[in-house]
Amino acid sequence: EVQLVESGGGLVQAGQSLRLSCSASGSTFDDDGIGWFRQAPGKEREGISCLSRRDGTTYYSNSVKGRFTISSDNAKNTVYLQMNSLKAADTAVYYCAAGTCAGGGSVWYVIDSWGQGSQVTVSS
Questions:
Q1: What's the rounded mean pLDDT across residues 72-79?
Q2: Which of 119, 124, 111, 123 is nearest to 40 (CA)?
Q3: What pLDDT sits at residue 81?
Q4: Please, is 2 exposed, middle or buried when counting C-beta atoms within 10 Å of its C-beta (0-12, 13-18, 19+)?
């Protein structure tokens, strides 16, 4: 199992941007997909983005498509989530994850590892 550590969360105003980072470590990092979930208070955990390390394909949920961009620096074993045009509804704990991406709007098929989470709060 790969170890994942998020950073970059914080408090921002609506309309502003924030970039999250996730550093991966471990000797068994063999998952194709790496990306992000989020969980808002009182809501279920939502898969929002996944990146295939095999071919670079990216996947996004409808709730973030067009505003968030996932990218990676494979040499540093780091994945990023650039979040633009943030809304109050984006307030959540954001979790880095590793597993298998899914198409058809599902974003994720299976999760093998989770980060501890990073709080993002968007004020209006």
A1: 89
A2: 119
A3: 98
A4: buried
